[in-house]
Amino acid sequence: MGQDAEVGGADRDPVVCRCEAVRVRDLLMAQDAWAIDSLRQLKLLTRAGMGICQGRVCGSVLEALARAWGWDPAGALASRPPARPWTMQAALAAGKPNGGHDEER
Ligand code: FES
Questions:
Q1: Is residue 45 part of a domain?
Q2: 39 is in which domain, residue-wise?
Q3: Which conformational region is residue 72 in: left (phi greater than 0), alpha (psi within -120 to 50 degrees), or beta?
Q4: Each residue of 12-32: pLDDT tens digit?
Q5: Which residues surround ligand 1 with Cβ inside 6 Å?
Q6: 67 located within any domain
Q7: Hey, which of 15, 20, 27 would you mutate to test ligand 1's pocket, going by the most ligand atoms within 8 Å of its Cβ?
Q8: What pLDDT does 76 receive?
């Protein structure tokens, strides 16, 4: 645990995004380094909100921080799942050698 990690039981540099291990300090440093002016830019440069949960855990915190910094967070954290939904019918058909198309009808 670092010197700045805890003071009086409160974490001075809390983790914002657990999936990508992004802390508040990382977000502030990114703003200083790259003159970021939107939540989308912050997301792309720090990967906050781009983890396996796609911002479901950290999204509300990121949006609150964005509002506090004067940014409009609308649409910045739209999740993009790595796969699209599949129907059970398509899954079952994929398991058949002929793709589910019976030729003996
Ligand atoms: S906690 Fe941020 S993407 Fe999962």
A1: yes
A2: 6-78
A3: beta
A4: 889 999 999 999 999 999 999
A5: 17-20, 49-51, 53-55, 57-58
A6: yes
A7: 20
A8: 86
